[in-house]
Amino acid sequence: MSGVATPLLLSLKVALWATFFATVFGVAIGYWLSRKQSTWFDLIDSILTLPMVLPPTVIGYYLLVLLGRRGWLGPFLADFGIELVFTWQGAVVAASVVAFPLVLKSARAAFQTVDGQYQDAGRVLGVSEVALFFRVTLPLASRGILAGVLLAFARALGEFGATLMIAGSIPGKTQTLSIAIYEAVQAGNDAMASLLVTITSVTCVIVLWVSSYLLQAGARKQKSGGRSA
């Protein structure tokens, strides 16, 4: 049982932390990109969403070049005692990178659907931009953002390639569910592989179902709001 519980708990820990970081940066940058429409903003959006289309091994290579001991930031981080390669924190970084575009795209789209009249009304009443964001804009866009967050969690939970390259496969330390499945298949342990695959699949189906429900609920709310107006 520990052969299942350990990678499962590690995967959940990595996915939760990765989702947290992806949400913070994804919502902030998504809001910034949603405020203006220009070719340059679309280019920035395209660059930031590259992890959605790049092979995971390419992402892992970039992370090694950036964070490895001989990388661009590796020696600098080592001076502060921060080591990310072959650690679960490195797995969090890899999962955050691949999950980030899902939050970014969802957040930008959700913010763009917010009716500007509500924001203008708040400014007329003297509400500050920060208060306006947290009291008006963010709540109105929350369903779309939450759907992206759930998708990011599912993506982080199933991350394999980039995580394997930067964190490796150390049982009990960096071996997540997806990596444990790979190792079980390589070892010919079909029973363990099937159990881990079932757990991962059921979890992802539940997350995707909740995400779809939130998107449909948001669309229905928008339509009813439009009719009442």
Question: How would you summarize the topology of this molecule?
Answer:
Layout: H1 2-34, H2 39-48, H3 56-67, H4 74-78, H5 88-112, H6 116-124, H7 129-157, H8 161-167, H9 177-186, H10 190-228
Would you kindly provide a brief summary of this structure?
The protein has 229 residues and is mostly helical. The protein has helices at residues 2-34, 39-48, 56-67, 74-78, 88-112, 116-124, 129-157, 161-167, 177-186, 190-228. Helix 9 packs antiparallel against helix 10 (190-228).
Describe the model.
With 229 residues, this protein is mostly helical. It has 10 helices and no strands. The protein has helices at 2-34, 39-48, 56-67, 74-78, 88-112, 116-124, 129-157, 161-167, 177-186, 190-228. It starts with a helix and ends with a helix.
